[in-house]
Amino acid sequence: MSGNTLDPASLHILDMVRTLGLGVGARLPSERRLAARLGWSRNTVREALAGLAAQGLVEIRPCSGAYVCAGACPQLSPDDPTPLHNAAEALGLIAPALAASTCALCGGGELTRLEASTMRMGQALVDNSLINVWRGLMAFYHELTALGGNPLALGFLDTLENTALPPGLDARIPPALGQALQPFFSAHIELLHALRNQDPEGSAAQAANSLAAFRRFLATSLGEPGRRPGVRPTN
Hints:
Helices cover about 60% and strands about 5% of the residues. With about 240 residues, it is mainly alpha-helical. The protein has 2 domains: about 10-70, Winged helix-like DNA-binding domain superfamily/Winged helix DNA-binding domain (Arc Repressor Mutant, subunit A); about 80-220, Up-down Bundle (Four Helix Bundle (Hemerythrin (Met), subunit A)), CATH 1.20.120. The chain has a two-stranded antiparallel sheet with strand order 1-2.
């Protein structure tokens, strides 16, 4: 359905869903988290979600939350990597601060879980699966965020994790994914070292470096946001 009859608050949430490329069935952050993130009252959030539900754009499940319906989702084609670009860029905005603020809390058990997420990414590189690289990356930052206990950041990451990836994504990436993403993975390993050494400046720098390299890979291999891969912009 069209969002033309929605109130401004409902349209704002709908725009967030579409900008982040959330998939069907993705759970939106709770009313409390949305209210805190958007600077609204919980009543405003509740009314905005009710407006979306009335249009069939979200489903409100009692005692569970609001879930994205098909009408709210951007219609992705195999040539549209934009949601992944957007999600990677959004992660890059918060990752350095997350790494810097939590590195002092990284003990043995926490580092073991972060290393497990990193190993998952390494295996995904061997398997040539960009989808699983992204999932491993999200698991890594979920661990960091849970360590810091920031509910707003956790809600934000939950939203990013539900990014709708273009169909057939893994079939479109270079056959040697590990080589293409080596700058990203090398910087990510340096991030682990900085966290282990409880170095906030180094942690922030390597988080920024690794995600900048990831975004460069996306732009090179999948095309820059807003245009299809292999198509040069006209002057």
